Amino acid sequence: xxxxxxxxxxxxxxxxxxxxxxxxxxxxxxxxxxxxxxxxxxxxxxxxxxxxxxxxxxxxxxxxxxxxxxxxx
Length: 73
Prior knowledge:
73 residues; 16% strand; flat
């Protein structure tokens, strides 16, 4: 039987791929004083990668804090 996390990961990847393949047109990205034109799939990939990095940092920090609290008790 496939674990739930693996199933959710696969569904997320398939959904992301469908969104990426359906959005090849260029878009303008405005960030503070910076403006650049990218294909939308590149913006989607960068956003997903940034989200994964933030989630990994958050979960590792939470685990570290839990371990630290358990040592203090």
